[in-house]
Design goal:
85 residues; mainly alpha
Length: 85
C-alpha cells in the first residue's frame, strides 16, 4: 500500500530532472546538434530535409556520448550543492 505522505510533487520532479545526468547529456547533445547542423548544412546545398534530420540526430547522439562524464560531474555538484546544510 502506498503511503499518503509520499506523493509525486512538482518540486520533486524538478529536482529529479535537475539532478539526472541524462538531462544534461540531452541538453548538451541538442545544443551541439542545434549549433552544428546549420554549419554542416552551409557546406553543401545538396542535402535533403531527411538528410538534415539525420545530421541533427547524429550530432545529438555524438553529444550524448561525449558529454557523459561532464554530465555526471554537473549532476554530482548540484546534488552536493543542494544537500549541504
Amino acid at each position: 500500500m502506498r503511503d499518503p505522505q509520499k506523493r509525486l510533487s512538482p518540486l520533486y520532479v524538478v529536482f529529479y530532472i535537475l539532478f539526472s545526468p541524462d538531462t544534461w547529456r540531452v541538453l548538451f547533445g541538442v545544443a551541439i546538434a542545434a549549433y552544428g547542423t546549420p554549419r554542416i548544412m552551409g557546406m553543401t546545398e545538396q542535402i535533403t530535409t531527411l538528410g538534415r534530420y539525420v545530421i541533427f540526430l547524429m550530432l545529438a547522439a555524438i553529444g550524448w556520448v561525449v558529454f557523459a562524464r561532464p554530465a555526471r560531474w554537473i549532476a554530482t555538484r548540484l546534488q552536493r550543492f543542494f544537500s549541504t546544510p
